[in-house]
# Entry
Amino acid sequence: MRTELTELGLEVQNLNKVYKGYDKSEPVVALKNLSLQVKKGAFFGLLGPNGAGKSTLINILAGLVIKTSGKVKIRNIDQDINVREFKRSIGVVPQETNFDPFLTPYESLDIQAGLYGVKKSERNINQLLKRLGLEGKSNAYMRSLSGGMRRRLLIGKALVHAPEVVILDEPTAGVDIELREMLWDYMKDLNANGTTIILTTHYLEEAQALCEKIAILNKGELIACNDTSDLLARVNLKVINIKYSNLNLKKINLPDKASIKEHKNQKLSISYDRNEIKTDQLLDCLRSQGIIMMDLSTEEADLADVFRLLTKNN
Ligand code: ADP
Ligand code: MG
# Structure
Protein backbone atom coordinates (compact mmCIF):
# COMPACT_ATOMS: atom_id res chain seq x y z
CA MET A 1 0.00 0.00 0.00
CA ARG A 2 1.32 3.48 -0.83
CA THR A 3 1.79 5.84 2.03
CA GLU A 4 -0.34 8.95 1.85
CA LEU A 5 1.35 12.25 1.31
CA THR A 6 -0.97 14.07 3.68
CA GLU A 7 0.80 14.82 6.93
CA LEU A 8 -0.50 12.91 9.88
CA GLY A 9 -1.35 14.77 13.05
CA LEU A 10 -1.22 11.57 15.02
CA GLU A 11 -0.29 8.01 14.19
CA VAL A 12 -0.84 5.03 16.47
CA GLN A 13 0.66 1.71 15.34
CA ASN A 14 -0.12 -1.69 16.85
CA LEU A 15 -0.59 -0.28 20.31
CA ASN A 16 -1.11 -2.73 23.16
CA LYS A 17 -1.71 -2.14 26.82
CA VAL A 18 -2.05 -4.78 29.49
CA TYR A 19 -2.58 -3.56 33.05
CA LYS A 20 -1.09 -5.90 35.61
CA GLY A 21 -4.28 -5.96 37.66
CA TYR A 22 -4.51 -5.22 41.34
CA ASP A 23 -3.12 -7.79 43.82
CA LYS A 24 -3.82 -11.21 42.40
CA SER A 25 -6.59 -10.19 40.01
CA GLU A 26 -6.32 -11.09 36.32
CA PRO A 27 -4.37 -8.75 34.03
CA VAL A 28 -6.58 -6.36 32.06
CA VAL A 29 -6.08 -6.04 28.30
CA ALA A 30 -7.08 -2.43 27.71
CA LEU A 31 -5.80 -1.95 24.13
CA LYS A 32 -5.46 -4.70 21.54
CA ASN A 33 -3.15 -3.98 18.64
CA LEU A 34 -4.74 -0.61 18.02
CA SER A 35 -3.78 1.28 14.87
CA LEU A 36 -5.18 4.68 14.07
CA GLN A 37 -4.31 7.67 11.90
CA VAL A 38 -5.50 11.22 12.40
CA LYS A 39 -4.81 13.81 9.70
CA LYS A 40 -3.09 17.03 10.64
CA GLY A 41 -5.65 19.75 11.29
CA ALA A 42 -8.54 17.32 11.75
CA PHE A 43 -11.30 17.56 14.33
CA PHE A 44 -11.44 13.91 15.34
CA GLY A 45 -13.85 12.13 17.67
CA LEU A 46 -12.86 9.14 19.77
CA LEU A 47 -15.92 7.32 21.07
CA GLY A 48 -16.61 4.11 22.92
CA PRO A 49 -18.53 2.72 25.88
CA ASN A 50 -17.10 2.85 29.40
CA GLY A 51 -14.01 0.70 29.72
CA ALA A 52 -13.34 0.70 25.95
CA GLY A 53 -9.79 1.97 26.47
CA LYS A 54 -10.17 5.64 25.48
CA SER A 55 -8.50 7.05 28.59
CA THR A 56 -5.78 4.41 28.38
CA LEU A 57 -4.94 5.55 24.85
CA ILE A 58 -5.03 9.20 25.85
CA ASN A 59 -2.96 8.63 28.97
CA ILE A 60 -0.34 6.77 26.92
CA LEU A 61 -0.17 9.78 24.60
CA ALA A 62 0.12 12.06 27.62
CA GLY A 63 2.96 9.96 29.02
CA LEU A 64 0.91 9.10 32.11
CA VAL A 65 0.58 5.39 31.26
CA ILE A 66 3.39 3.24 29.85
CA LYS A 67 2.39 1.26 26.76
CA THR A 68 3.05 -2.47 26.67
CA SER A 69 4.05 -2.34 22.98
CA GLY A 70 3.47 -0.36 19.82
CA LYS A 71 4.38 3.03 18.38
CA VAL A 72 2.97 6.51 18.72
CA LYS A 73 3.97 9.43 16.49
CA ILE A 74 3.04 13.02 15.81
CA ARG A 75 4.08 13.76 12.23
CA ASN A 76 7.40 11.94 12.33
CA ILE A 77 8.07 12.63 15.96
CA ASP A 78 8.29 9.30 17.78
CA GLN A 79 7.23 9.29 21.43
CA ASP A 80 10.12 6.97 22.39
CA ILE A 81 12.83 8.58 20.26
CA ASN A 82 12.10 12.31 20.25
CA VAL A 83 10.80 12.35 23.79
CA ARG A 84 10.90 16.09 24.48
CA GLU A 85 9.72 17.15 21.05
CA PHE A 86 6.80 14.75 21.31
CA LYS A 87 5.81 16.14 24.70
CA ARG A 88 5.95 19.68 23.35
CA SER A 89 3.78 18.78 20.35
CA ILE A 90 0.89 17.49 22.39
CA GLY A 91 -1.49 18.95 24.96
CA VAL A 92 -3.71 16.58 26.90
CA VAL A 93 -6.71 17.45 29.03
CA PRO A 94 -7.08 14.38 31.27
CA GLN A 95 -10.40 13.04 32.51
CA GLU A 96 -9.46 13.41 36.17
CA THR A 97 -8.92 16.81 37.74
CA ASN A 98 -5.99 16.97 40.09
CA PHE A 99 -4.59 20.26 41.40
CA ASP A 100 -2.01 21.59 43.75
CA PRO A 101 -4.18 23.44 46.31
CA PHE A 102 -1.38 25.89 47.11
CA LEU A 103 -1.11 27.40 43.64
CA THR A 104 -3.23 30.12 42.07
CA PRO A 105 -4.45 29.63 38.48
CA TYR A 106 -1.80 32.09 37.25
CA GLU A 107 0.99 30.26 39.05
CA SER A 108 -0.26 26.88 37.93
CA LEU A 109 -0.20 27.91 34.25
CA ASP A 110 3.12 29.72 34.59
CA ILE A 111 4.79 26.65 36.12
CA GLN A 112 3.30 24.44 33.42
CA ALA A 113 4.68 26.79 30.74
CA GLY A 114 8.08 26.57 32.43
CA LEU A 115 7.92 22.77 32.43
CA TYR A 116 7.40 22.86 28.67
CA GLY A 117 10.30 25.25 28.18
CA VAL A 118 8.16 28.19 27.02
CA LYS A 119 10.28 31.35 27.43
CA LYS A 120 9.02 33.94 29.92
CA SER A 121 8.70 36.52 27.13
CA GLU A 122 6.55 34.10 25.13
CA ARG A 123 4.11 33.16 27.85
CA ASN A 124 0.61 34.55 27.36
CA ILE A 125 -0.83 33.47 30.69
CA ASN A 126 -3.16 36.45 31.13
CA GLN A 127 -4.51 36.10 27.62
CA LEU A 128 -5.11 32.39 28.18
CA LEU A 129 -6.87 33.03 31.50
CA LYS A 130 -9.06 35.57 29.74
CA ARG A 131 -9.92 33.17 26.92
CA LEU A 132 -10.95 30.63 29.52
CA GLY A 133 -13.08 33.17 31.37
CA LEU A 134 -10.82 32.99 34.42
CA GLU A 135 -9.34 36.49 34.28
CA GLY A 136 -10.94 37.46 37.58
CA LYS A 137 -9.53 34.37 39.26
CA SER A 138 -5.89 34.52 38.29
CA ASN A 139 -4.74 35.03 41.87
CA ALA A 140 -7.51 33.15 43.67
CA TYR A 141 -6.94 30.14 45.88
CA MET A 142 -7.46 26.89 44.04
CA ARG A 143 -9.94 25.65 46.66
CA SER A 144 -12.15 28.66 45.97
CA LEU A 145 -12.62 27.62 42.32
CA SER A 146 -15.81 25.83 41.27
CA GLY A 147 -15.69 22.49 39.44
CA GLY A 148 -16.25 24.24 36.12
CA MET A 149 -13.43 26.70 36.77
CA ARG A 150 -11.04 23.88 37.63
CA ARG A 151 -11.99 22.15 34.43
CA ARG A 152 -11.20 25.32 32.48
CA LEU A 153 -7.85 25.61 34.21
CA LEU A 154 -7.07 22.02 33.28
CA ILE A 155 -7.69 22.96 29.65
CA GLY A 156 -5.42 25.97 30.09
CA LYS A 157 -2.66 23.71 31.38
CA ALA A 158 -2.89 21.60 28.22
CA LEU A 159 -2.74 24.66 25.95
CA VAL A 160 -0.10 26.76 27.63
CA HIS A 161 2.65 25.64 25.23
CA ALA A 162 0.48 26.01 22.09
CA PRO A 163 0.73 22.33 21.07
CA GLU A 164 -0.10 21.25 17.52
CA VAL A 165 -2.24 18.33 18.75
CA VAL A 166 -4.77 18.80 21.56
CA ILE A 167 -6.52 15.80 23.08
CA LEU A 168 -9.46 16.25 25.39
CA ASP A 169 -10.75 13.34 27.50
CA GLU A 170 -14.44 14.02 28.14
CA PRO A 171 -13.98 17.77 28.72
CA THR A 172 -17.71 18.43 28.83
CA ALA A 173 -18.74 15.60 31.18
CA GLY A 174 -20.92 17.06 33.89
CA VAL A 175 -20.34 20.71 32.98
CA ASP A 176 -23.16 23.20 32.50
CA ILE A 177 -24.42 24.30 29.08
CA GLU A 178 -22.69 27.67 29.26
CA LEU A 179 -19.25 26.17 29.83
CA ARG A 180 -19.90 23.46 27.28
CA GLU A 181 -20.67 26.06 24.62
CA MET A 182 -17.64 28.10 25.58
CA LEU A 183 -15.48 24.99 25.18
CA TRP A 184 -17.00 24.18 21.80
CA ASP A 185 -16.22 27.70 20.55
CA TYR A 186 -12.70 27.48 21.87
CA MET A 187 -12.03 24.09 20.30
CA LYS A 188 -13.49 25.26 16.99
CA ASP A 189 -11.24 28.36 17.04
CA LEU A 190 -8.14 26.30 17.82
CA ASN A 191 -9.02 23.90 15.02
CA ALA A 192 -9.66 26.74 12.57
CA ASN A 193 -6.13 27.95 13.34
CA GLY A 194 -4.68 24.58 12.37
CA THR A 195 -4.57 22.68 15.65
CA THR A 196 -5.45 19.00 15.40
CA ILE A 197 -8.19 18.23 17.93
CA ILE A 198 -9.00 14.79 19.28
CA LEU A 199 -12.10 14.74 21.42
CA THR A 200 -13.53 12.03 23.61
CA THR A 201 -17.08 12.55 24.69
CA HIS A 202 -20.11 10.76 26.03
CA TYR A 203 -22.41 13.16 24.26
CA LEU A 204 -22.84 11.73 20.81
CA GLU A 205 -24.71 14.76 19.53
CA GLU A 206 -21.61 16.75 20.46
CA ALA A 207 -19.38 14.42 18.44
CA GLN A 208 -21.82 14.52 15.55
CA ALA A 209 -21.84 18.32 15.54
CA LEU A 210 -18.10 18.92 15.98
CA CYS A 211 -16.11 16.03 14.55
CA GLU A 212 -15.51 15.47 10.86
CA LYS A 213 -14.23 11.97 11.52
CA ILE A 214 -15.06 9.47 14.24
CA ALA A 215 -13.35 6.36 15.58
CA ILE A 216 -15.23 3.95 17.81
CA LEU A 217 -13.34 1.83 20.29
CA ASN A 218 -14.85 -1.20 21.97
CA LYS A 219 -12.99 -3.50 24.36
CA GLY A 220 -9.65 -2.09 23.29
CA GLU A 221 -10.28 -2.56 19.56
CA LEU A 222 -11.20 -0.19 16.79
CA ILE A 223 -14.62 -1.13 15.45
CA ALA A 224 -15.17 1.86 13.18
CA CYS A 225 -13.22 4.81 11.81
CA ASN A 226 -15.14 6.85 9.26
CA ASP A 227 -16.13 10.32 8.20
CA THR A 228 -19.02 11.23 10.46
CA SER A 229 -21.46 11.42 7.56
CA ASP A 230 -20.31 8.03 6.20
CA LEU A 231 -20.69 6.46 9.61
CA LEU A 232 -24.31 7.57 9.68
CA ALA A 233 -24.84 6.25 6.15
CA ARG A 234 -22.82 3.05 6.68
CA VAL A 235 -25.51 1.44 8.73
CA ASN A 236 -28.93 1.73 7.22
CA LEU A 237 -30.63 2.50 10.50
CA LYS A 238 -34.15 3.60 11.11
CA VAL A 239 -35.97 4.32 14.33
CA ILE A 240 -39.54 3.24 14.95
CA ASN A 241 -41.62 4.70 17.79
CA ILE A 242 -44.49 2.65 19.15
CA LYS A 243 -47.18 3.48 21.62
CA TYR A 244 -48.83 0.38 23.09
CA SER A 245 -51.71 -0.29 25.43
CA ASN A 246 -50.42 -3.23 27.51
CA LEU A 247 -49.81 -2.56 31.18
CA ASN A 248 -46.79 -4.00 32.99
CA LEU A 249 -44.91 -5.11 29.91
CA LYS A 250 -41.47 -6.22 31.02
CA LYS A 251 -38.99 -8.05 28.85
CA ILE A 252 -39.17 -7.49 25.11
CA ASN A 253 -37.23 -9.76 22.79
CA LEU A 254 -35.92 -8.27 19.57
CA PRO A 255 -34.21 -9.67 16.48
CA ASP A 256 -30.39 -9.38 16.33
CA LYS A 257 -30.11 -6.19 14.31
CA ALA A 258 -32.59 -4.24 16.39
CA SER A 259 -32.16 -2.61 19.77
CA ILE A 260 -34.27 -0.67 22.24
CA LYS A 261 -33.52 3.03 22.15
CA GLU A 262 -35.97 4.06 24.81
CA HIS A 263 -38.78 2.41 26.72
CA LYS A 264 -41.03 4.18 29.19
CA ASN A 265 -44.64 5.11 29.82
CA GLN A 266 -45.93 2.59 27.28
CA LYS A 267 -43.76 4.15 24.60
CA LEU A 268 -41.12 2.08 22.91
CA SER A 269 -38.43 3.31 20.50
CA ILE A 270 -36.50 0.71 18.55
CA SER A 271 -33.63 1.28 16.16
CA TYR A 272 -33.09 -1.35 13.51
CA ASP A 273 -30.93 -2.05 10.49
CA ARG A 274 -33.07 -1.81 7.37
CA ASN A 275 -30.64 -3.99 5.44
CA GLU A 276 -31.31 -6.85 7.83
CA ILE A 277 -34.87 -6.50 9.03
CA LYS A 278 -38.07 -5.47 7.32
CA THR A 279 -40.39 -3.23 9.30
CA ASP A 280 -43.09 -5.89 8.92
CA GLN A 281 -40.84 -8.51 10.47
CA LEU A 282 -40.14 -6.29 13.43
CA LEU A 283 -43.82 -5.55 13.99
CA ASP A 284 -44.69 -9.26 13.69
CA CYS A 285 -42.04 -10.03 16.29
CA LEU A 286 -43.61 -7.53 18.69
CA ARG A 287 -47.17 -8.76 18.01
CA SER A 288 -46.07 -12.33 18.66
CA GLN A 289 -45.10 -11.20 22.17
CA GLY A 290 -48.62 -9.90 22.74
CA ILE A 291 -47.85 -6.21 22.37
CA ILE A 292 -50.93 -4.25 21.36
CA MET A 293 -49.85 -1.25 19.30
CA MET A 294 -51.86 1.97 19.36
CA ASP A 295 -49.69 4.30 17.34
CA LEU A 296 -46.62 4.12 15.12
CA SER A 297 -44.14 6.59 13.67
CA THR A 298 -40.64 6.37 12.20
CA GLU A 299 -37.62 8.69 12.12
CA GLU A 300 -34.04 8.76 10.80
CA ALA A 301 -31.33 7.44 13.09
CA ASP A 302 -28.60 9.62 14.58
CA LEU A 303 -25.06 8.88 15.70
CA ALA A 304 -26.23 7.61 19.07
CA ASP A 305 -28.30 4.93 17.33
CA VAL A 306 -25.41 3.89 15.10
CA PHE A 307 -23.14 3.74 18.15
CA ARG A 308 -25.61 1.56 20.06
CA LEU A 309 -25.87 -0.88 17.17
CA LEU A 310 -22.10 -1.11 16.60
CA THR A 311 -21.23 -1.65 20.25
CA LYS A 312 -24.06 -4.08 21.01
CA ASN A 313 -23.01 -7.67 21.92
CA ASN A 314 -19.44 -7.49 20.87
P1 ADP B 1 -12.52 4.32 28.96
O1 ADP B 1 -11.77 5.59 29.15
O2 ADP B 1 -12.85 4.04 27.53
O3 ADP B 1 -13.74 4.24 29.83
P2 ADP B 1 -10.24 3.05 30.27
O4 ADP B 1 -9.07 3.26 29.37
O5 ADP B 1 -10.36 3.93 31.46
O6 ADP B 1 -11.57 3.09 29.39
O7 ADP B 1 -10.22 1.54 30.76
C1 ADP B 1 -10.01 0.44 29.90
C2 ADP B 1 -9.89 -0.83 30.73
O8 ADP B 1 -8.69 -0.82 31.50
C3 ADP B 1 -11.02 -1.01 31.73
O9 ADP B 1 -11.30 -2.39 31.81
C4 ADP B 1 -10.41 -0.51 33.03
O10 ADP B 1 -11.01 -1.13 34.14
C5 ADP B 1 -8.97 -0.93 32.88
N1 ADP B 1 -8.04 -0.05 33.61
C6 ADP B 1 -7.90 1.30 33.45
N2 ADP B 1 -6.93 1.78 34.25
C7 ADP B 1 -6.43 0.72 34.94
C8 ADP B 1 -5.39 0.54 35.92
N3 ADP B 1 -4.67 1.58 36.34
N4 ADP B 1 -5.18 -0.71 36.40
C9 ADP B 1 -5.89 -1.76 35.96
N5 ADP B 1 -6.87 -1.67 35.04
C10 ADP B 1 -7.14 -0.46 34.53
MG1 MG C 1 -12.21 7.34 30.20
